[in-house]
């Protein structure tokens, strides 16, 4: 190596290298958002099983409690899963905070800009921040409850909570907030990292946006139907509130729930 | 000409303010003008200045979408005045200066100053391997396809529309904007530039750079030169996240 090159390296070494954290945090935000969104899809399948039958929902609940592996129920397993999701949720919310308007000035600058621009993706971001903010409270309430009452899941137990304990209000708000936020988030993930970009980014973006709205509308419809099913069971079951569901075939075997 | 009777009367609302006269508060001034065939906002504004109000400030040089000096907010959205036909707009036209740049007066803003600071910050010029460039030597040949790719990104006219369209730039003053990210993409492609992704990370790998972009894509949708800003930002984000 000649001396000029060595001199350059020394000069470079004196300047501190840029931190790698902005890159890591950006990736962590996207990965945590992706995992949460995928979990929410799974979650929708689990709760919507009530639309198939009470037995189907009971079976899925028991699956998570390890009943079919250990021969008895361990609701603690549910608590562990909830704790993991809660951790992911806190991480994601913490990272998202960096993107929130930091003060009223930024908030109003963005608002004015958005109204003038009439640009869909800019407006969607506003809704993502708004729903994200709502999720701070709504999802925290739900997650905390499930963390501390992991055994209280089942066709009757859940329906009694939805109707008897008025949780339907929380769940209705949660449904809209999560589906809007998750849908916009997944779309943004795709354009942000350029996945599915293909040869014609504009055309794939139009397709992504159409897919995003289709999925969101479908999931909100499915969620409303599911919630209605729990409300119906909850109303019917109100006189025996607190009683747990046990499928007929388990009663024959002499099992319990 | 056919049917001048159907020509519209345009109401042009111009946001006026001159920082040199701070005692005169910002105000909207409305002018009425008869629309002419093939009228652009450049023609309209020139007519306003000639016939109505010689004090009206705005910038034009090329009148053909090449110099980038006529960017302004047209009915809420940034665009080039010289490339905007009044026929595409409603009869009420609201004009305002690009909000993310220093105001010179009325519709005239100092994009040049912003662009220069950004260019210096991002060191947006070819960094050759040699310390001294031998000007007598022929430049090395560039593969034509690659030259096309570089040229595609080099078409940016620094009009500032992408910055004014960007919600992130509105909230965070130091954000480099799509124009800055695109510039880094351009020099990254250039085979004469000796810098690698490590070096570009130093310039762009932070929350004022590519990781600050919130992917609102207004830059991509409003760039008058239709630069592939969406792909460029996503590409650099992937590259620099891997460092
Ligand atoms: C306290 C709760 C939450 C808050 C405050 C929140 C907030 C945010 C914000 C502000 C963004 C935009 C970040 C950006 O522009 O880079 C975002 C992105 C995202 N969120 Fe959430 N979120 C929350 C919960 C959730 C949940 C439950 C899901 C799953 C359905 C989710 C999925 C996503 C996805 C997929 C993204 C895109 C990630 C990215 O842009 O890198 N978020 N979140
Ligand atoms: S990228 Fe497009 S909008 Fe931005 S300055 Fe260049 S030409 Fe103008
Ligand atoms: S994608 Fe959005 S946030 Fe990023 S530079 Fe473009 S307009 Fe700004
Ligand atoms: S006057 Fe040059 S771009 Fe409009």
User: How much of the residues of chain A is beta strand, in percent?
Assistant: under 5%
pLDDT averaged over residues of chain B? 94
CATH topology of chain A: 3 helical TM bundles of succinate and fumarate reductases
Structural class of chain A: mainly alpha
What does this entry look like structurally?
- The complex is a heterodimer of chains A (257) and B (243).
- Chain A is an all-alpha fold.
- Helix content of chain A is 78%, strand content 0%.
- Chain A has 11 helices and no strands.
- The radius of gyration of chain A is 24 Å and the shape is elongated.
- Chain B has a 5-stranded mixed beta sheet with strand order 2-1-5-3-4. A two-stranded antiparallel ribbon of chain B has the order 6-7.
- Chain B has 243 residues and is of the alpha+beta class.
- Chain B is elongated.
- The A-B interface holds A 4, 17-20, 22-23, 25-27, 98-99, 101-102, 106, 109-110, 113-119, 121-122, 125, 188, 191-194, 197, 201, 205 and B 73, 76-77, 99, 131, 165, 167, 170-172, 201-202, 205-207, 209, 211, 213-218, 221-222, 228, 230-231, 234-235, 237-238, 240-241, 243.
- The structure holds protoporphyrin IX containing FE (HEM), iron/sulfur cluster (2 copies) and FE2/S2 (inorganic) cluster.
- The site of one iron/sulfur cluster has 13 residues of chain B, from α4 and α6.
Summarize the topology:
The complex is a heterodimer of chains A (257) and B (243).
Chain A: H1 3-14, H2 21-48, H3 54-64, H4 67-70, H5 76-97, H6 104-117, H7 120-148, H8 155-164, H9 167-193, H10 201-237, H11 248-253
Chain B: E1 9-16, E2 27-34, H1 41-52, E3 71-74, E4 77-80, E5 92-96, E6 103-105, E7 108-109, H2 111-121, H3 144-154, H4 161-164, H5 167-171, H6 177-189, H7 197-204, H8 218-222, H9 229-241
Parallel strand pairs in B: 1-5
Antiparallel strand pairs in B: 1-2, 3-4, 3-5, 6-7
The complex binds protoporphyrin IX containing FE, iron/sulfur cluster (SF4) (2 copies) and FE2/S2 (inorganic) cluster.
Residues 29-30, 33-34, 36-37, 40, 89, 92-93, 96, 99, 128-129, 132-133, 135-136, 139, 178, 181-182, 185-186, 188-189, 192 of chain A line the site of protoporphyrin IX containing FE (HEM).
